[in-house]
Write the structure tokens for this entry.
Amino acid sequence: MRTVLVLGGLLIVLTVLAQEQKILPGDSLKITIQPDASLSRVYRVDDQGNLPMPLIGVIKAAGLTPKELADEIARRLREGDFIRNPQVKVEIVARAEQKVSVGGAVRKAGEFTLQPGWRLSDALREADASNVADLSAIRLERLDGTVRTVNFLKFQQEGDQNENPELQPGDRIFVPLQPGGRNVIVVGAVQKPGVVPYEQGLTLIGAIGKAGGTLPEADTTQITLKRAHAATPQTINLNTLQADIPLQPGDQITVPYRTIRQFILIRGSVRRPGLINYVEGMTLTQAIEAAGGPLPEAKLERVTIQRPSGKRTQRITVNLLQVARGTRADEVLQAGDTIDVPMPRRRSGSIEEPLRVVWLLLSIYFLVARR
């Protein structure tokens, strides 16, 4: 009996500890949502710590505990009027390799596997700090959002371990340029992040080009330019004519990563309800076909699309019978859309064959329209 009590107590402790663990970028999470089981599956937190989900969009999951994330998912489902009383459970089922990232005035910017006992000095050694780096004002950002300025120069000169902190999973380290130098920094979603030597006439686009250009996942509409003596950074859309701004020595350019919800959720009267991969330009009929097509009893004249739009949800009703007859255009979808294909309250055997014919017409329409 005593052994059973001890084991039971140990299980409770382990469960509590698991719920107190912080979620990291790259973690795999088993998310169970009731009563809508179609949303329940294993999700992966992306490398920027974001969790894209159907209906509610993107959540910054890294730094939260499983319980905190479950509470946030439930809140969004309630406030978006998707589920009245959602019951959400989050479990970490696979841990990502624990990493830290180093950027700025270093020769080898990027992510490094966090080794036991690693301190700031270890990360700077691996990243090979540049000779133009300002080691007295290193920025250390934790997963929970707290930011600290570290005077690593003081550790080098005086051995002050407070200025050589132990690192934690997900730490982001930024090494600035020395003031008064003639360089600029390009960090983020570029091929070769780091220091770019300043020369007369260097522009924003030119500096990004010297950093190897942007990565495919870069968000070129939200680039930030921080000047040495400016209080706030400037946001720049690289796709506009005004983007090619002349640079100054000491400028810091950040190219953010783009977060895309690359899925569609289909529920209701289809053969394979659930998530399907989103493809640019996908239409409603293509999505339903990817889900195996409608069931015979599907109510095709009342298909609805729910589309997240800020704090509100846009609802679009589509009559697929009109699409089949050519009197209505097929609806172009967006990533993150949720499609509901309803069924009538009363089933009637007499409508099964006509609906099959309707879907055959829709399939023919889809094949012709795609050419």
About this structure: Residues 67 and 163 are 33 Å apart (CA to CA). The first strand starts at residue 28 and ends at 34.
